[in-house]
Specification:
This protein has 124 residues and is mainly beta. The protein is 3% helix and 44% strand. The chain has a six-stranded antiparallel barrel. The chain is globular.
């Protein structure tokens, strides 16, 4: 059984058929290694898609909605983010991450391009 946990209250959740109309920016498919760091914990995974406001990631472990973290995409500078929803799967989880320095995040900013520069610190 698949279980989805989210920060959005049930009364405000949007039916799946309307989600495409809710998006503020286009998503593009991207399969790239990603590392999510939450202070003393690091979780590795793969991106499924990315947009200006965030990304969708498949991970083996689970993180809770609301968890603030640092997103490390290969070859890009780290980005602050927050887990907005978690879909528990039999072999791991799919998580939705909102960039906190992007237009959909709390701080506002330049979106995906803000992390496009090469990082001097390599993560694997």
């Amino acid at each position: 059984m698949i279980r989805r946990r989210t920060l959005t209250p049930p009364s405000l959740q949007i039916p799946p058929e309307l989600l495409a109309n809710r998006r503020r920016s286009a998503r593009r498919e991207l399969s790239e290694r990603v590392r999510l760091e939450t202070g003393d914990r690091a979780v590795s995974g793969w991106t499924l898609n990315v947009s200006v406001g965030g990304l969708r990631v498949v991970i083996e472990n689970s993180l809770d909605p609301g968890t603030e973290l640092t997103v490390w995409l290969d070859g890009r500078s780290p980005r602050p983010g927050r887990i907005m929803w978690v879909q528990d799967e039999p072999d791991g989880s799919i998580v939705g991450v909102c960039f906190l320095d992007g237009p959909d995040g709390a701080e506002g900013g330049a979106g995906l391009d803000a992390g496009a520069s090469r990082s001097s610190r390599s993560r694997s």
